[in-house]
Amino acid sequence: MSPKCRIAIAIPCHNSERELHQVVSRAFDYAVDVKLFAVDSGSTDSTWDILEELHREGKLAGIARCELGRSNALNAAAALALESEWSPELIMFLHSDTLVPRGYDQAARTIMQRPGVALGHFRFQWEGVENNPAMQFNQWYVNQRCSWVKLPWGDQAFVVARKTFESVGGFPAIPIMEDTAFLLACEKLGTTECTGLTISTRPAKLLEAGVHWGCLRQMVRNHVFTVCWLIGFVTSTQIYSRYYKG
What we know:
Radius of gyration: 17 Å
Helix content: 40-55%
Order of helices and strands: EHEHEHEEHEHEHHEHHH
Shape: globular
Distance between the termini: 46 Å
Strand order of the largest sheet: 3-2-1-4-7
Number of strands: 8
Largest sheet: 5 strands, mixed
């Protein structure tokens, strides 16, 4: 793989109006030989209007709409990129509330050049939680988990080669846990490795709600759901129902 290989950034969006301008602008400004593709998955706010604006400005190479569901948006954004004239060699999946650091593009290329690597990812950080010890602990734990058991989640910007994405068939059509299922499929083809750079996700809803130590309860809940799903005790549909419908 060339040190200057083409990268497509696939951005799934759902009610993303708050962070979208900054997320797209930074990913566009901080990179070389990168094009961005975004898909709106059933938003009810001004997300689509913002995507059209960013497309007119040339920051987004392609935009589309799809049915509600993150896996739908991830696959649709990747399809936009793969079917474009850009013909990327790498795909990076960037959530619409996540900010990339300078040099992210070269870090992605470098990690994917290592022999045997099937999936790359970034270190995790919450944006704006300097005075929130619970969320600082949470981000420390996430990075330790990735170091110990190689289990990053989708908000850490997965990076895969085009051939890997096509080989595993993209993200599975399930309502939740699609990132972990995709990771497990990729791990059958090679290893999972971290770039060493840190991306930042702003927990706007948690900060507005004044959530502090309650985020640790959510962390435990997420891990219980993940373990139960991995051992086949619950389905992704059951987790989705419990997670979003109480």
